[in-house]
Amino acid sequence: MAIRNRGDKMNGAAGILVALLSLLFPPFSVFILAGCGPDLLINILLTLWIWFPGVIHALYLLTVYYDRRNKYKVGVRPVKRMPFIFSDKVQSGSGTPIWRR
User: Fold this and answer.
1) Number of domains composing the chain
2) Distance of CA 67 to CAs 24, 45, 50, 63, Å?
3) Which residues have C-beta within 8 Å of that of residue 37, sequence separation ≥ 6?
4) The whole model's pTM is what?
């Protein structure tokens, strides 16, 4: 059984909070994840269009972000960039790989 520290639990709580924000107000959750950039502009346009595509886009960014972050924690570097994501912060999981620290 793996021992998790308190930081992992807080990261899980933050992920749940951002997921709830993705459902209620997608552009705000994209701003938290990717910052101000093309991903935010795309999400605002999708949200204004019908709202539901903005939710899907925000959840897609959230999924890629946390997947990449967990891979970097383990030490596995993703080989290619995910499509339709322009933020380097999301592509890299908001950090540097373990072998560069």
Assistant:
1) 1
2) 22, 25, 27, 6
3) 86, 87
4) 0.80
In a domain, 78, yes or no: yes
User: How far apart (Å, rounded) are the C-alpha atoms in residues 12 and 41?
Assistant: 27
pLDDT digit string, tens, across residues 42-96: 999 999 999 999 999 999 999 998 888 888 888 887 778 888 888 888 888 876 5
Name the residue range of residue 80's domain: 11-100
- Give the residue ranges of DSSP H helices in the chain: 6-24, 26-34, 38-49, 52-74, 88-91
Q: Residue 1 falls within a domain, yes or no?
A: no
The label of the residue with tokens 């701003």 reads: 31
On whether residue 46 sits in a domain, the answer given is: yes
